[in-house]
Amino acid sequence: MYKDFLKKIKRYLCIIIFTNIAILAITVPLLVYFIIHSKNDEVTPVNISNTTTTAENQLTNGFTTKISTTNNNNQTSTSTQLVFWNIDKSLNTGRSNFGSVLLANGQVLVAGGLLNSNTDYSGTEVYTSTGWQVATSMTGPRGFHTVTAFANNTKVLAAGSAGGSNASGISISAAELYIPSSNSFINATNMNIARCCFTSTLLSDGSTVLVTGGINAANSLITIAELYINGSWIPLSSSMTQVRAYHAAVLSNDGTVLIAGGGSGTPNAYSSAEIYNATTQNFIAVGSMQYRRGGLTLTLLPSGKVLAIGGADWTSDTYPLVCELYDPVTRTWSNALMLNYGRSFHQSVLTNTFVLTMGGTNGTSNRLTSSEKYNL
């Protein structure tokens, strides 16, 4: 009788064990499925609470951008996704305030920038299918400069800087050209006005570059713009509607140049925007962004809309995670998808299949090496 009892106990234990195994075999895959898909389908709002960071960009010409950031606000996106960026390969050298451009072979060139020590850097890298590769250096170090590729992709223009090789922090007018065919940099004609923290945009003719705003060698913000045409710099008679530095600009499909954000360097961040009409050579104010952004990027999407990415709101001490879309038809902005991490003084480049954003600063003492990718 005792043996029969043990047999029954063993039978019940076996049934319980096999039942639990069967339940686990069914529920574990389901849990994994729902976890994965809940992350993809999760919607905002997202509470970024009580995260305090400090960053400082010190220019020895007297302009200091110091950000003590407490993200205690809810940021809401109208998207059906929580974030739209995937973490991608890291730069070899962390940097902010640098230049980037898409080359004809599909690679992305990044040049110069500020290192952790706040010193200008002459080093460059290219983004390939295997990641970031170290490339040839510029003729001199640059930070707070611009890099612009011409339509025929036979050359890339790098201009301006805060300090350059003199390490003084005073804006310079020096320019140089990168020749992709020989993987080399050569000196070019200087700009009429020394400037840093400005923008340069290739116009629709494919050979003219528009330079706007920034800080000059006298430590003043400027509204004066100039054009680079056939190796020469020509100042414009018209000025921007607002004095600004640390802003962004991009060529729209209609031939106008959208200029947005930035700040006065005191620090105050702007949400205002304007467009440059290449035909009339005039600047016209348009609708303001919903977030103030300094050190942002603007990227023209295949849809014709413009994506505003990142930046720092120095006025409220926050980094906007929410991106915005500019509609050139209505000349207004709307909320778009969200970044994984707040960043400013980064760079963003549109390729055939994705938007790549990389580097910058997120309020810590170190420059970012991380890059994020949005698949179109």
Automatic annotation (TrEMBL):
The UniProt record lists the keyword Metal-binding: no
UniProt keyword Repeat present: yes
Domain of life according to the entry: Eukaryota
Membrane-crossing residue ranges in chain numbering: 12-36
Keywords carried by this UniProt record: Kelch repeat, Membrane, Repeat, Transmembrane, Transmembrane helix
InterPro entries associated with the record: Gal_Oxidase_central_sf, Kelch-typ_b-propeller, Kelch_1
Protein name: Kelch repeat protein
Source species: Adineta steineri
Higher taxonomy: Eukaryota, Metazoa, Spiralia, Gnathifera, Rotifera
